[in-house]
Here is the input.
Amino acid sequence: MHHRKGGKSCRPPLVRGFLCGFFLSTLIGMPIARAAETPPARATAYMIAAANPLAVRAGREILRAGGSAIDAAIAAQMVLNLVEPQSSGIGGGGFLLYYEAASGTVTAYDGRETAPAAVTPELFLDADGKPMAFWDAVVGGRSVGVPGLLRMLEMAHRAHGRLAWASLFAPAIRLADAGFPVSPRLNRLIAEDRYLKRFAATAAYFYDPAGNPRPVGYLLRNPAFAETLRRIARDGADALYTGPIAAAIVAAVRGATGNPGAMTLDDLANYRAKRRAPVCAAYRRWQVCGMPPPTSGGVATLQILGILSQFDLAALAPNSTAAVHLITEASRLAFADRNRFLGDPDFVPVPVDRLLAPDYLARRARLIGPDASLGKAVPGLPIQNGAMPHQPAPPSTTHMVVVDAAGNVVSMTASIESAFGSRLMAAGFLLNNELTDFSFRPRDDAGRLIANRVEPGKRPRSSMAPTIILDRDGGFAVALGSPGGSRIIGYVVKALIATLDWGLDIQAAIDLPNFVNRNGPTDLEKGTVLETLVLALRALGHEVRVRSLVSGLHGIARRGGILTGGADPRREGVAAGD
Here is the structure.
């Protein structure tokens, strides 16, 4: 383990009893994180880490041609749209953090989907005024938000691109025309899905005429997507938001049998990506920057870290009862605030400064005890928002990190929400179901308005948490993020702590077993050493579940002149550079 210089074995005042009593006694005999079996990728000039080797190849091709981090991210994302269609694409949205090496500044780009102008707060209520069953809401046009990813990427390219826009689409166009081999993960997800056969376009693309999933290795061509990309390469993002592609999107949404949506051509034409100020806070000797609302990911991650800054995590063993207890208790507190206060800041007041205030987080930290779980945490601010009820958040999405030769960095999470989104296709790509990230109910049981209620033009709350960490001199240190629904926050926090507090390399930090608490049960990753902690955590009052926690963490770190990259072994990604 890495211990910061000058650190004491026990730090006053809060940590003295905590660490010197229960915590340090539990370290004896606890399993210690092993070094990763796979070493991190290494490079000196530039690097990309993403969820599919074909996407990494495309991004690396752009970097080798002198492209910027934004250029490489666009090329890689278009390939991901093709080869990992279940996770992200131009039919969905995303959040992008950009670090500019020359100025040392971080900028946030918001490409989150918006609700069509014709929706009402009752969008997901049935005829009796009760919330729809989740999957009844997801499948079809009702759940489709106005896509934002392409407008966001165009905005970022205008500010930070180096190569011509059109050139960035060439790798994906080649693959769409020639075909790509269906991966084991894509084949499995097609086979497991219950809804892809509901619509003719998805059924024809993902299954053979006999109704069998496209097999592993099958060369899957997508000429419709190739044509869409050619139009976008030639005409810019306008090609998607106006004209034939926009018409195809609206026709698919409004014509969805059994569950049509309300999107119009005007909704697409009026969509705007947004440049926002990131949320940043000190953690130990680093500055951690994340995305601001409408995602909850940045604020919740910084809240957890702010609470944990009151404790000497470097004195705790990875995979120990002590570490898991402390981190999940901090997560309970952050999720209590998240579920009450976070939403689209253009529609509801979001008290970001109050939630991240150091004195507030110190008070929250004092609620954590050494020998008993908090149980259900309550929000810490006296703001009378309604409490959003728990809704499913199917894990999908994708994350990539790019560092270019000039030292600029992209950390981007993109999504179409659940695997295969709404199951609707238009012009060769899947459409999102992001509107189901809104609260299905506009008010809680007490009649209070819920911050994340449906409203026309509003962006649904997300958990995406692309993160960039700077060192004490303002230089780039680490960038990472993950898919995984609302569990993204826990995955990102785990990897950050493993890197910053425990001194693990980026690949080892990603490999470390996952554990998550969203102000409910403590979930431990199935098939890992964490299963040995079940009895000890239950003795502390945790409700413990052993689950398959399939993160998709991708990250790059820099120390001195060396870049190291990591890709999550739970998915199909790689990291590569020169």
In short: The first helix runs from residue 14 to 27.
